[in-house]
Amino acid sequence: MKPLYGVYGASGCGRGIMPLLRQQLATTDAQLVFIDDAPTTDVANGHSIWTFDRFVSEPASQRLAALAVANAGVREVLDHRCRTAGIDVIGVFAANVIIMDDVEIGPGALLSPFVTLTSNIRIGRCFHGNLYSYVEHDCVIGDYVTFAPGVRCNGNVTIGSHAYIGSGAIIRQGISIGAGATVGMGAVVTKDVPPGVTVVGNPARIMDKEMKC
Fold this sequence. Notes:
This protein is an alpha/beta fold.
């Protein structure tokens, strides 16, 4: 029997990760499929789409999954689901990702092309680092954090679990972003962000009801 690898999520995020996993496994005799809880088709980009139940029940020497779902809460649920079912949650790194000295990355990280992690960085479980994002020295990042494309995270930044950092956001050195916070697309974050809030703009400020209208 072959090892069975799944990319959990057949939407845009998953379809961006599958080619990276395929490249990562190019020299192995493994079967690669998408996993989706509500598939609308049987195939995406040449790979079969299976339900989770099928992924668990098909014969395999080993089952492993990359969690390519952007929503942090859903990603945590899927992480627990996979581990409970005996499925190893794996990381997928593009071939041109740069990782420097003393970087610790938790299981399940997905690092897209042109991501850079410099030195002395700690990253929790199931981190998503999208295209052209970077994390500078001495940062601490929690579990299930998502960086959209082009995030610039400067040194000595702390980011709590479940935070979402939007495309092109810039995070000033030395600040803290609370758990569950959202940083809007293109925001320039110059001071600490409390847990659970959304900040937007330059300089970034907490979104209030007037701004939502």
